[in-house]
Amino acid sequence: MTAIGTNDLAIDAENVARRFETTWVLRGVDLRLSAGEVVGLLGANGTGKSTLLRIVATLLRPHAGSVRVFGHDVVRASGDVRSLVGYLAHAPGVYGDLTARENLAFAASMLDRDHAEVDATLERVGLLDVADQTVRVFSSGMQRRLAIGRLLLIRPRLLLLDEPYSNLDTEGVALVNSVIAERVDAGAAALAVVHELAPAASVLDRTLTLADGRLGVTERVDEKTVISLVANDR
Amino acid sequence: MSWRREWRRARAIAWKDLRTERRSKAGFSSVTVLAVTILVLFGFALGPDASVGRDAAPGVIWLAVLFAGVLAFNRCYQIELDGGSLEQLILYPGTRRAIFAGKLLANFVFVALMLLVVVFAGIVLFQVRIPSSWPALVGILAAGTIGLVTLGTFYAAMASRSRAREVLLPLLLFPMLVPVLLAAMEATKALLGGNVMGDAGAWTRLLVAFDVIFLVATFLAFEFVIEV
Amino acid sequence: MSNWMFVGAAFAATWIALLGYLAHLQRTMRRSRDLFERATKAGNR
Amino acid sequence: MTTGAVASVVPKSHASRWPVFGWFAFLFLIASQITAIAISPPDRDMGDLQKIMYVHVPAAWMTMLSPLAVLYFGLRYLWTRREEDDLLAASSAEVATTFAGLTLALGMIWARPTWGVWWTWDARLTSMLVLFLMLAGYLALRALIDERERRAQWSAVVGVLGALNVPIVYMSVRWWRTIHQIQSSPETVDRAYVVGLRLNAFAMLFVMIYFVRRRYEAALLERMAERAIERAALGQGAAR
To answer: Is the dihedral of CA A25, A31, A35, A39 positive or negative?
Structure first.
């Protein structure tokens, strides 16, 4: 990789550590992710994948080390980082008593977007026909689509996705991949926590495996590798 | 950070909270009915004697609103916590004060409406004579509600995310509200008693001073509360 | 006469409170020191 | 994570002068109580009851002073994020609660012979009671939160807001009471009495400072133990 100035790096994390009471979930993680790159984050449950994602998203403060997103420090300049980041968490983060349209209208007001974009986004994520139902009745897959709709409204330069493909149908997986592709074409980067490589194969550039609190194995992802990985994934 | 955009965000949050409150069945009506129930229980405690009731009415009305109001404050953050949307709320650009302003607005509307019902019920139950200077009374009730809602919304941001939240919020909130309660009760009593504005005026000034001090303090302190 | 009883009670209450808190402090200090020794002993071995 | 703080706090390994200060504070308190009682003439109307003031008033002053410490260390923590400030704020709050409780008890012991009732809604006593409840709230908040950083930050904020409210509470309670009851303040002009009061106030102040320091040392030791365990956990991880 050509030497890139640190502020072109989507994520520049050095020696990040985070502890939960007396167990260290992350012990000195180093991670560089440049714009336009899509990286899969692998690792068994409880190895701190979500923790790392939440630190980059400025939701958790690292107990050691530092993280810069496009040159902005996540602790000191969290405001700037937040305007660049789109975080798709496990929990959909939608309001059950509001309808799909109201949820996105709320997000549009918070993001200072024009409300005209709401219906276009609903259509893009395939929820236009259920736009006026309260989200409480939605399946988790549909709620995830609504959260992706919010992500589109944010137009983030860094996507942080926590198991975006879990309980999504094939159409949903295609939607996630198309959103990632669209954002990457616009110069964004993406870090996605995944358990299986198959759904993400078409967009992933490389994977990192989080083990023992550190980022170890770095593998390039191409068709051949995915097949071998998927084979022994059973 | 243009004020206009911050204000738009605060309005959006207030609108969202109030819409959620109206949709969910356990919302406004049940808390208001609870407040009236508390009023009735005080009525039993004070006994049927009209003059005792009339004298205690201001105090009883405020206590009913306070106890019922506490439930609303914790709930307004529960909406965020249930769906995991508090994180998304924090991630929206702009300052965190817009979140506090929005919650404050929503809680003020909620408690103000409840107060209207409780005051009306209190006047009827305790045969309170409406004074000629009732606009001043509305002013005092508004100032008292601002004080109650400001601290209530602020402390609920912490209590709603800790253990034993139902105990922690009243434990933190009630001692802090002593000046509001005293001022609101005494000013209301002074007005209902028809005595000269002097006394009620002094209490009202204290109430307004309390509101201003703690509105500024809570706005400054909110990001320390919501961030960690 | 009864006044002296109250004065006595006041001074007694003061010393009960002060010495009581001092005892609480000693207990807390002992507990923390044990914690500290156990941790640092285990830590640096 | 200042390791410097460790050296200064481990009393055993180096002759810290704090235990000496502790003895001095308590002896000075005994001395000033004896002198106060000795030199003070019986008050015209209250007789010997006035001697209760030699413990009640200093305890009340300390109860008003310690929340200022909670405010100061709380603000400092919000600025510096140093754990020492958080622990000092917590120690001051615990000591403040003790003194508040003592002041209330003494207030009641004084009220019984003076007004014939254990509790009167006297302005100062009542605001002291509210202060005690606010301190109880602060300690409850600290007890209910496990995450260290959140507990430190939230208790700092509650401490600051609480301290901000103390004068307002006192003012509102005093207005509330003066309308109904003449303000009874035992301020007699007698010089010996004032000297006795001031002497005891300083003695109580030294005792309070010793208490806060001692409580702080215990808290810091506990914190160092926690940190050592954390470092050990970090070490083991790498070794595996």
So the answer is: negative
> How much of chain D is in helix, strand and coil states, percent to nearest 5?
80, 0, 20
Is residue D83 domain-resident?
A: yes
- Per the structure, the count of domains in chain D is 1
Please report, rounded to a whole number, the percentage of residues in chain D having pLDDT higher than 70: 83
- A39 strand-pairing partners: A191, A206
Q: Is the pTM of this model over 0.80?
A: yes
CB distance B8–A109 less than 8 Å?
yes
The beta-carbon neighbor of B178 closest among D141, D164, D172 is: D172
Asked if this assembly's ipTM is beyond 0.90, the reply is no
The structural domains of chain B, with segments of one domain joined by +, span 3-227
The pLDDT of residue A94 is 92
Q: Is residue D8 part of a domain?
A: no
H/E stretch holding C14 reads helix C2-44
Q: Do chains D and A touch (3 or more CB pairs under 8 A)?
A: yes
Q: Do B175 and D137 touch (CB under 8 A)?
A: yes
**Which pLDDT value is given to residue D188?**
52
Q: D: neighbours with 3+ CB pairs under 8 Å?
A: A, B, C
Residue D52 domain boundaries: 15-39+46-181+195-230
Half-sphere exposure of A1 (CA within 13 A, CB side): 13
* D233/A61 touch (CB, cutoff 8 Å), yes or no: no
Task: Report CB contact under 8 Å: B91, A112.
Answer: no
Q: Is D16 helix (H, G, I), strand (E, B) or coil?
A: coil
User: How many other C-beta atoms lie within 10 A of the C-beta of residue D68?
Assistant: 13
Residue D157 to residue B224, Cβ atoms within 8 A:
yes
The DSSP symbol for A181 reads H
Show me where the domains of chain A are located: 6-84+156-232, 95-155
Nearest CA in chain A to D240: A212
Question: For the segment B41-92, what is each residue's pLDDT rounded down to a tens digit?
Answer: 999 998 888 888 888 888 999 999 999 999 889 888 988 888 889 999 999 9
Question: What's the pLDDT tens digit per position in A156-208?
Answer: 999 999 999 888 888 989 999 999 999 999 989 999 998 888 888 888 888 88
Superfamily of domain A6-84+156-232: P-loop containing nucleotide triphosphate hydrolases (3.40.50.300)
Q: Write down the pLDDT at residue D58.
A: 93
Chain C / chain D CB contacts < 8 angstroms? 91
DSSP track, D9-61: H-TTTTT-SHHHHHHHHHHHHHHHHHHHHHHPPPBTTTBGGGGGHHHHHHHHH
User: In the complex, which subunits touch A with 3 or more CB pairs below 8 angstroms?
Assistant: B, D
How many Cβ atoms sit within 10 Å of the Cβ of residue C16?
A: 12
B148, B176, B227: best to mutate for the D interface, most D CBs within 10 A:
B176
The token duo for B226 is: 């919501």
Task: Specify the range with the lowest mean pLDDT, choosing from A185-189, A210-214, B26-30, D184-188.
Answer: D184-188
Closest Cα in chain C, distance from residue D218 (Å):
5
* Residue A65 burial (CB count, 10 A): 17
Q: Are D237 and A61 inside 8 Å of each other by CB? A: no
B24: nearest CB among A94, A97, A150? A97
Residue B215 pLDDT > 90, yes or no?
A: yes
Q: Identify which of D192, A195, A59, D159 has the alpha carbon closest to the alpha carbon of residue B172.
A: D159
Chains that touch B (3 or more CB pairs under 8 A): A, D
Name the residue facing A95 among B83, B92, B93 (closest C-beta). Answer: B83
Q: Which pair of tokens denotes residue B194?
A: 């028809």
Chain B, window 131-160: residues with a beta carbon less than 8 angstroms from a chain D beta carbon: 151, 154-155, 158
Task: Give CA–CA dist D194/D54, Å, rounded.
Answer: 9
Q: Check residue D17 and report its DSSP letter.
A: S
Which of D55, D112, D221 lies at the smallest CB-CB distance from C36?
A: D221
Q: Is A97 within 8 Å of B11 when comparing Cβ atoms?
A: no
Note the pLDDT of residue D44: 64
Give the per-residue pLDDT at B129. Answer: 80
